[in-house]
Amino acid sequence: MEEFIRVPFEKVSINKMIQKAGISRGSFYTYFQDKFDVLACIFEDASEKLLESWRECAEKNSGDLWKTAETFFDYSITNTKEHMLMLKNLSESEKMFGEIHKMRQSCDSGLYTLLEGMYEPVDKGNFKDQTMETFENLISMIFLELLHCMGWHYHHPEDEEKIKNVFRKKLEILQYGICKCQL
Fold first, then answer.
1. Most distant CA atoms of the chain, gap in Å
2. Distances, alpha carbon 135 to alpha carbons 10, 88, 112, 131, in Å
3. What was the pLDDT predicted at 44?
C-alpha cells in the first residue's frame, strides 16, 4: 500500500515493493501476477476492514442507519488518511480509469457480500421498502456523500466540524426528504 500512496499508479514499482517487503521477485510472483493483482488484494483487505468498522458502528448505535453512517464518517476521518492518499493517486491515473471498472466487474460477488454484511446489522423497522435493491441505492448515496466530504476534509482538515455538520444535513435530507408534502 505504501507504494500506491507514494506515487501515481503508472509509477508504482514492483521492485520497490519487493525491496520494502524484503522478498525475492519469485516470491512476489508466487502470490501476485502484477501490480493490478496487488491492488485487488489491497481493495479486498480494505473491504473487510470497512465491513468490520461498519458493523461496530451499527452495534454502537443499535442498528440506527443514520447514526451508524454518522459514526462511520467520524471513524473514516480518523482512520483512512492513507487510503485517501492512495485513492487520490489512483483517481489521477489515466490508466486506472478503465482498470478500476474491470476490477469492479470481477468483484461484483464480493461487493454483494459487503452490501449484505452492511444490511444485516441495520434496523430496517422504519424502512418503507426493505429490499436489498433499495438498501443498495441508499448506501450508494450515503457513501457518495461520505466520499465527497472525505475529499473536502482531505484538502481542508481545519473545516472538520463544518464538514461533519454538512454531512449530517445531507443524511437528514436522505432520511426525511426535502418536500413538505406527504405522498
1. 66
2. 36, 27, 11, 6
3. 87
pLDDT at 82: 74
Q: In 3D, which of 168, 152, 114 has the Cα closest to residue 136?
A: 114
The confidence band for 54, taking pLDDT boundaries of 50, 70 and 90, is: very high
Q: Which three cell numbers stand for residue 43?
A: 481493495
Question: All 3 cell numbers of residue 129?
Answer: 421498502
In order of 134, 138, 170, 178, the CA distances from 181 in angstroms are 22, 21, 19, 9
Sign of CA dihedral 63, 71, 168, 85: negative
Task: Let me know: does 60 contact 71? Beta carbons within 8 Å.
Answer: yes
Over residues 135-156, the mean pLDDT reads 92
The 3-class SS string of the chain reads CHHHHHCCHHHCCHHHHHHHHCCCHHHHHHHCCCHHHHHHHHHHHHHHHHHHHHHHHHHHCCCCHHHHHHHHHHHHHHHCHHHHHHHHHHHCCHHHHHHHHHHHHHCHHHHHHHHHHHHCCCCCCCCCCCCHHHHHHHHHHHHHHHHHHHHHHHHCHHHHHHHHHHHHHHHHHHHHCCCCCCC
